[in-house]
Amino acid sequence: MMGPMTHGVSFPADAEGRRSTTRAGRTIVAEALRPVDPVGALGAEQDTAWRTGYVLHFRRLVEAGVASPEAWLSIAEAGLDAVRRTLIVTDDDDRDEPLDSLTSAPATRTLRTHEVVGTAEPQVDLVIPYRGRELHGADLRAQLDEWVARGVMEPSAAAAVREVIGHPEWLALPGRTVAVLGAGAEMGPLAALLRWGATVAAVDLPREALWQRVARTARAGAGRLLVPVDAAPSGDGAGEGTWGADLLAEVPEVADWLGSLEGRLVLGNYLYADGGTHVRVAAAADVLATRVTGVRQDTALAFLATPTDAFAVPHEAVEHSTRAYRERSGTAKLVGRPLRWATRGRLLHRAYPPAADPGISDAIVPVQGPNYALAKRIQRWRASVARRDGQLVSFHVAPSTRTLSVVKNRALAAAFAGAHRFGVEVFEPDTANTLMAALLVHDLSTDVPRHEHPWQDEAYAAVHGGLWRAAYEPRSALGLAAALGYASART
Questions:
Q1: What share of the chain is helix, strand, coil (3-state, %, to 5)?
Q2: pLDDT in tens, 146-192
Q3: Burial (CB count <10 Å: 0-12, 13-18, 19+), residue 331
Q4: Is the separation of the CB atoms in 187 and 439 below 8 Å?
Q5: What digits encode the pLDDT tens for the residues 339-351?
Q6: What's CA 196's distance to the chain center, in Å?
Q7: Helix, strand or coil for residue 100?
Q8: Which residue, 473, 449, 453, is CA-closest to 461?
């Protein structure tokens, strides 16, 4: 979701009127670290090369939190508080208000509900498209086993999907309404849920082409699509400017609309935007979640985390990676030694110390930038705090996927094209979004395990594509993967 830089949720302006994403990001990360790592906080706030140096500080947020559950939650709470104190809301007259003002601000318009009902019969079995095949039943179970054996997903993810295979009656999520923020997102669950017969409340910008595509998906499915509208659209298509809402400027309006819907509400954040706008929509969605939960306390939250981030991972993943490093081919060993020597250890080094428990998987891709990292970290902080407070949270690491937002970046596209050479699988969107929708269904239909430490909640049922269990530390192989990807693209 995009929006003008000076309207709605935004960054504060300095004396010259500049709204710096760097200043805000540096402040938020420093404030998040301060309660448990004052030295790290000082390093973050004094970093003069934030757009490249941010990687170290985002890793440190994880390292400092692993010490204890209390440390992890202190970082999450301080980070969310810093977001609320740093970002602001700007109106059409360029007047700034605190971000927290949106938790009680009145709506300026009333959104009504338009419904699109699918025409197909619901899918009665879990079917996941994969490499030109439609996997279900025994074939899907076999593929899950193969993914686990290769280290593409954690065993808990495969176990959760197997439960869904055995309970196809879960797929329609009876009695629930899933609100999808970012209805047009390629990684969102909208299409899968509608195929399964679920009720989906869709939120995205009022863009005609987007809503025409979403409406076609709904009519071809078996569920109910609920859309916020300002005026009744003509026919069953999306009239220009009539469907949708701009979350950056309309948190109260969207909150009131969601609060009026029937069924137990699930608020799923699948928003993406370029640059600083991603942080803005992440902050807006977080305020929305707070406001909706205040009215409907049984609201569940859902998030998809990116694997290109820093995570604490279980010792079993460390052992898998260590074994892969030890058993790598003779050619890999022959090539790797001079490369490590020539680059002073920067290329093709092992991912973890063999005894690490937990390990730290640092797969942050610098080219994605600090705004992307911060937007995704806000979601992780909210998931941890909400779970601590007893709220139902579905949180899963999703695999790297060839979405349009990724492949338009030539460097990332090339790295993804060469990733398989280093034990990492990059998924197609239809496979990834269906698989992650199945994990959402599982979490909403069963008792999600509670773990001793919040990092274990993040690692539960992760589908990281192999980044956690590959032989090499991801960034030490990224450049070579990109070079091989470029080469394969030219042949």
A1: 50, 15, 35
A2: 999 999 999 999 999 999 999 999 999 999 999 999 999 999 999 99
A3: exposed
A4: no
A5: 666 666 677 889 9
A6: 22
A7: helix
A8: 449
Structural tokens at position 73: 């939650």
Spatial distance between the Cα atoms of 317 and 55, rounded to a whole number of angstroms: 22
- The structure tokens listed for 207 are 């863009």
Two tokens at 372? 């992307």
User: What sign does the CA torsion over 144, 145, 146, 151 have?
Assistant: positive
Rounded Cα distance, 217 and 150, in Å = 34
Say how many residues make up the chain.
Answer: 491
Q: Alpha-carbon distance 77 to 381, whole Å?
A: 7
∠ CA 185-111-224, nearest 5°, is: 55
Q: Please report the sign of the dihedral spanned by the C-alpha atoms of residue 377, residue 379, residue 382, residue 383.
A: negative
The one-letter amino acid at 48 = T
- pTM here is 0.94
Quick check: 35 and 82 in contact, CB under 8 A? no
**Ordered structural domains, the chain, with CATH:** 8-107 (no CATH), 112-314+357-490 (3.40.50.720)
- Give the separation between CA 36 and CA 236, rounded to whole angstroms: 54
